[in-house]
Each structure stands twice: as structure tokens, then as C-alpha cells.
Amino acid sequence: MKNTPSPHNLHSNRRKPISNFQYEDANNNKPKHQRFAALKAAVKKVAGVFKILLFGQREAIPKGAAVIDTRTNTRISGISSSTDISTWSDTKSSSKFKLSQSNNSSSALSGVIETKNFSYEEIFKATEKFSPANKIGEGAFGTVYKGRLGDGSLVAVKRAKKATYDKLIALEFKNEILTLSMIEHLNLVRLYGYLEHGDERIIVVEYVGNGTLREHLDGTLGNGLEAGERLDIAIDVAHAITYLHMYTDPPIIHRDIKSLNILITEKFRAKVADFGFARLSADPNATHISTQIKGTAGYLDPEYLKTYQLTEKSDVYSFGVLLVELMTGRRPIEPQKPANERLTTRWAMQMLKRGDAILVMDPKLRRNPASTMALEKILMLAKQCLAPLRQSRPSMQKCAEILWGIRKDFREKALSASSTPHYSANFPVRDAKKTRQTSFGIEDGDSYKFISA
Ligand SMILES: Nc1ncnc2c1ncn2[C@@H]1O[C@H](COP(=O)(O)OP(=O)(O)OP(=O)(O)O)[C@@H](O)[C@H]1O
Prior knowledge:
The protein is an alpha+beta fold. It has helices at 7-10, 23-26, 32-55, 120-126, 167-181, 213-218, 227-246, 302-307, 313-328, 344-354, 369-385, 396-418, 447-452, and strands at 88-89, 98-99, 116-117, 135-138, 142-148, 154-160, 191-197, 200-206, 252-253, 262-264, 270-272, 279-280, 288-289, 309-310, 430-431, 436-437. The strands form 6 sheets. Strands 3-7-8-6-5-4 form a 6-stranded mixed β-sheet, with helices on both faces. Strands 1-2 form a two-stranded antiparallel ribbon.
């Protein structure tokens, strides 16, 4: 085994929760000037943590980092002048492949998180010989297993299909690894390592243990998501995509934002997964002309479909579809519904225009002034994201800001309503059925409290 960091080591530099900042109490007995210095340091620290929370843990990846695109004939596409598949050293004989820089081959690829080259034995052991009992999912890429590494950490092991292993899968595999290796953010699934060995292609990522957003919306998992939780999930996803668009260099376009690719933590927060289709753009100002379209039906930006030009605003469009999913609980395309309801976004937008937004609200959501207000405002944001012209769509950062405002109003309304006698708000409450604290939807550590303050 190589002397590379374990997943535990990789996390060793993780921030401390803000609740650890006990500066006021701890410094009460100190002289005034010391208290002031401590206060100043703490304020600086909090500001730093705020930046990290909002924008992820990494500084921007330096220019010149490897650029990759996928070229396929079926699912993936996107050939552009700025992409360069040759940045991969794809040696079949090697049990692993290397990352190299497109512009600067002299130095290691900085801005790329350290990952581990797992051995086949390690993975075999971690998944108990790829036991069907450990299978947690299946996608176009292959099968996903839950695994436990030697140090006890839980991981998700994505094993490419062998039967259909071809250039397409190879490109998707490399694309996902390269993209994941450049990002580190609380709301993005983290890469631990990979393995390329013979005809095996395996990606090892952080295990996120509470299913996909789609499963929660369908009710096949959990007890249903409340309005506050849906709002938190929307904000988490907005943060993740903002980070991809604005705080990585080159910017990353995810290209497959959908409820199936949003993983939910035990504390009902969201992590964006599945970077098989992601596009790294070397020049954010360049117009990328794809020869083929990639993405998922129902989420695809109509302007991208029409012009083959891919920009960050295609993710914004898909995010708009996701917002409608979150509010209605429905999938983007519902073939079983009456004709006027089959395209969920069109139906929802028509109802919003008519002033009947309440009619599209997920029947699983409790109706009260706070949730109906949030519904209307979120649908109004979705409408902007779904604008036919990409210039009219907001940036992901703007989406996040609007959502913060909605969450603030939602909380205030819910709090004032809950203090009214005989009023049964769904928020904040201790939900006995779910035995989870839904107060403010803040469950993933105190850090979230700070962000929303
Ligand atoms: N990190 C993870 N933690 C827990 N479960 C996961 C994880 N990654 C994937 N899964 C599960 O496996 C399923 C398939 O994963 P994923 O969508 O990444 O595979 P894929 O082959 O890349 O899919 P796609 O068809 O979208 O390309 C997910 O829907 C989810 O249920």
C-alpha cells in the first residue's frame, strides 16, 4: 500500500464548529486589552469560517490545471476548443493513471486534493467481495456498494460496469475523478480515491447515508421532508453549485443537477454527487459549442438544446427544475398525469401565474402561512431560473442569496405563528414521529446557524 493519506487524514484539517468559539466566556477574567485582542482574533476566525462555509474549503484552483471533457456518442458529449482529453495519461498497462497539467507539466497538479490509489484487495475487502448485501445503488456508470475501509471509515464504492466497459465509461470514469479531485466543499460528495486495475474501474467517495432527494420526495425513504428541510436542501445545493461556478478555476459546470444526484445526510442536509458529466471550462468567457447534448430529460436547458452552447446558466436552469420538484414533490416529467400536468415546470408556472400556486404544493407538505409563503417565493425564483434566455436567469450565487431571504422570512413567519395559541405550525417543532429536531432546519452543526444569521 502506498504511503498516501487515509480518508481520516484527509479530513484532519476540517474546520471546527463555530460552537467551539467560547471567546466571551473564556476571556471574561482577562485584562481588557487581552479580551479585545481575543475578540478581534475570534471575529477574524468567524469571518474566515463564514467564507469557508459559504465558498468551500479550498482556494481557487490555479489556472493551468488540467482540463478535460468527455466525448461520447450516447450519453455524454461536449467537444469544445478549450477541452483537452490528452491531459490524461491513459495507459492500459498501468494499474492507475496519472493527472497531468495541460499547460504546465513541470509541477504537480496543484489545487487537486490528495487522493488514494486503492488496491483491489482493499476494495474487495471493504465491500466484502462486492457482496450484493452491500449494494446501495445502480446507475448508468455501474453499481454502487457501501464499504468499510481498514480504518473503519464508511465509503461508497462506484464500480464501473464491466460488460459495457468501453471508451464511454472510461471517459466518464476519468472525468468524475478529475472533477472530484478538484473540489472540496461541505455540500459536494468528496473523493477518497480510485482504482484502475485490469478491466476494473472503481471510484471511492464519501458515503452519504440517507438516500437521494428523489427517494425522500417519493416517500420511499424517511417520513417526508418538511418545508424548512426542503428550503435547507435548496440552499445547500445552491451553495454547492455556486462553489463549482465561482470558486474553482477553471469553473465547473455540473450538467446533471437532478434530485437523483442529490444525496441526503442523516441530518437532512444535501450533498451534490455524480460528476460523470461535469465539464471543466478553462476559459469561463469562452462559448462552448458541444457537438452532442448531455444531461437528463426534463432538466435540460432549452437554450443549450437549441444552440449547443453550454454555460453555467444550464445548471441554473436545472436548479430551477429542482426547486419545482422540491415544492411539488413531482418528477419533472409525469407521463401518468393529465396532459396539462405532464410537464411539471410548465404546470407549476401556469398555476403561479394564475395566482394558484397553492394547488401545486406537494400534498405531503403541511399548509400554513409560512409554508405557503415559502412556496410562492421559491416558485418565483424557479421562474427566473427557468427563463428561456440564459441572460435572464440569475447566477447561482444570486439564487443562494434569494433563498437565504426566503428562509429568513419563513422562520420569522413560522415563529410568530407558533407563538399564536391554537396554531399548529410545522416549524419549529419537535416532530415525535420523526424524532428529529426540525427547529429552523439547522441540524448539521452550529455552523449553519452562523450562515443564516
Ligand atoms: N456517495 C454515495 N453515498 C451513498 N449512496 C450513493 C453514493 N453515490 C451513489 N449512491 C447511490 O447509488 C446510486 C447510483 O449512483 P450514481 O448516480 O452516482 O451512479 P451513476 O452510475 O454515476 O449514475 P448516473 O446514471 O446518474 O450516471 C445513487 O442513486 C445512490 O442511491
